[in-house]
Design brief:
This protein is of the alpha/beta class. The chain has a single domain (4-344), classed as Ureohydrolase domain (Arginase, Chain A, 3-Layer(aba) Sandwich). Helices cover 41% and strands 14% of the residues. The chain has helices at residues 4-10, 55-62, 76-79, 90-110, 118-147, 163-170, 201-206, 224-231, 242-250, 255-264, 297-310, 328-344; strands at 35-40, 81-83, 151-156, 176-181, 211-219, 237-241, 269-275, 312-319. An 8-stranded parallel β-sheet has the order 2-1-3-8-7-4-5-6, with helices on both faces. Helix 8 (224-231) links the parallel strand 5 and strand 6 (237-241). Helix 4 packs across helix 5, helix 5 packs across helix 6 (163-170) and helix 11 packs parallel to helix 12. The longest helix has 30 residues, at 118-147. The radius of gyration is 20 Å and the shape is globular. The chain starts with a helix and ends with a helix. 48% of the residues are buried.
Length: 347
């Protein structure tokens, strides 16, 4: 049986990735890899554009085009990175339930939702139950690999998918913070009636007492209810809106100074939750809810690199990458993911 050392010695990182190999064209299995990526192809409660459930596969296919030499992490590929198998039937179940959720979302849009409608009530119960089962599945799988000593990252799927991972981390860490890069606050309470909505992930995260701080970056779309949640959690939530970031830069603040302030607000242990729509939408045009503005790719990677210099990263997710006609979205997602892997393994 070939050892990891033998695989490293015989592998040529300058060649194009082999299509029958692992993510980024690497030759390592999950036991040999220092970092495992948990795919969660789920997007039941999406309320605008769709396609995020195909995100893990789309990123995987695009990953073969990523050059393995990373100037900041030149030996990253030797650590081993593996994308795990999808949970059987998860994407198919997501697709089926998304159609039913669409009936609810349509009814919300026309003002026809009634708490007394037995059909809609049954759909609510079915979807909330299925989403809770997805969360439990992610918690179990993430916990399994954390207990094996692996660094774990999650690849969504919509932004509801990391909750189980956060629960797993909360059982293994007394306290940690979340760096949340996103166009949206995701602090809605059971958005459109769905407890585990993609728009409620950070509200649900704040229900974990182990989450001591939530620092949001790039926010540019939010509602009054979310501002009320922030007002009720002034000691735990810090928001850097996109408008605030750019206004300060126009007046002379450097991105380094802003990153220093973002990082200073976080505790020693940090989980990174990165919604691809936190970037400028020219980089992710097919994401579910694109919003004008956002970070450049270089701003994002600089922030993540600065973070690893000062904090201990205990996990991360990359969500809401959706395919379009070409592979642009997957290309950007794969390159951001590779950088996030490098950051997470720099411990």
């Amino acid at each position: 049986m070939t050892t990891k050392r033998e695989k490293i010695d015989s592998f040529n990182p300058n060649n194009a990735g082999l299509t029958d190999s692992q993510i980024f064209g690497l030759p390592f299995n999950e036991e040999e890899s220092d970092l495992v990526l948990l795919p969660v192809p789920w997007e039941v409660t999406v309320s605008y554009g769709s396609g995020a459930s195909a995100g893990p596969d789309h990123i995987f296919d695009a990953s073969y085009q990523v050059d393995l030499f990373h100037p900041e992490f030149p030996d990253l590929w030797k650590r081993g990175i593996t994308l795990l198998e999808n949970s059987p039937g998860m994407r198919e179940r997501s697709d089926s339930l998304k159609e039913k959720a669409g009936e609810i979302i349509k009814a919300w849009g026309t003002g026809e939702v009634s708490a007394e409608d037995p059909k809609l009530r049954a759909i609510f119960r079915e979807i909330n139950t299925a989403c809770e089962e997805m969360v439990a599945n992610v918690e179990q799988r993430a916990g399994h690999w954390l207990d094996k000593g692996k660094v774990v990252g999650l690849v969504g799927g919509d932004h509801s998918t990391p909750l189980g991972f956060l629960r797993a981390l909360a059982k293994r860490h007394d306290s940690f913070g979340i760096l949340h890069v996103d166009a949206h606050m995701d602090l809605r309470i059971a958005y459109e009636g769905f407890t585990y909505s993609h728009a409620s992930i950070m509200y649900n995260a704040l229900r974990l007492p182990q989450v001591s701080k939530l620092v949001q970056v790039g926010i540019r779309d939010y509602c009054e209810e979310e501002m009320s949640v922030i007002s009720a959690n002034k000691e735990r939530v810090v928001v850097h809106t996109d408008a605030e970031i750019h206004r300060a830069s126009f007046e002379g603040e450097t991105w380094k100074e802003r990153c220093d302030a973002i990082i200073a607000a976080l505790p020693e242990k940090v989980y990174v939750s990165f919604d691809i729509d936190g970037l400028d939408p020219t980089l992710c045009p097919n994401t579910g809810t694109p919003v004008p503005g956002g970070l450049s790719f270089q701003q994002a990677t600089y922030l993540l690199s600065k973070l690893k210099d000062h904090k201990k990263i205990i996990g991360f997710d990359l969500v809401e990458v959706a395919p379009g006609e070409g592979d642009w979205n997957g290309n950007v997602g794969a390159r951001l993911l590779y950088h996030m892997c490098g950051v997470a393994l720099s411990v």
